[in-house]
Design goal:
Layout (H helix, E strand, L loop, with lengths): L21 E2 L21 H6 L4 E4 L9 H9 L6 E7 L6 H8 L9 E5 L5 H10 L2 H5 L8 E5 L10 E4 L1
Length: 167
Amino acid sequence: MFSDNTSGVTVTGASLAGVHVGTSGWSYPSWKPGFYPTGTDTKEFLRFYAGRFATVELNTTGYRLPGEEQFARWAEQTPPGFRFAPKLAGNRPRMLADFGPRVGALGDRLGPIRVQLISARDEGMIELILGSLDPVSTTRRRSATCGFAIHRTTTRRWGSGPTVYEP
């Protein structure tokens, strides 16, 4: 799975401006040993991860929306410049009212919001989402790193589709 050298990797300066590399989550006990050194407490996974990657997708937000306190705790465990990319399931419009304020607790750690749509051309849902989430007010400051990544799948299963980043 991981090489013996993986846990020794550290963040380096970007060789391609504006590109952040990360994974879909960090809380994987199976990554220990390998990525996480033996003995690393699961409470330290995010801090360790953030020392090696500059971003992470918050896949959990597509299924369950944590409280603002949890988002704030995650932000506190990461260094300046780190970005979270929360996922918003496009088939859960009731989440929209709480989504912006809660992910806003990430402060300057909030990166793009990944919106996953079920329908390939759900223009109504796209308009609802774009009209409900203001990237500038969500981060509570003007930021060029915040935007929407809209991922359209053509089936109800995980699949590939175009990802659109709108800064």
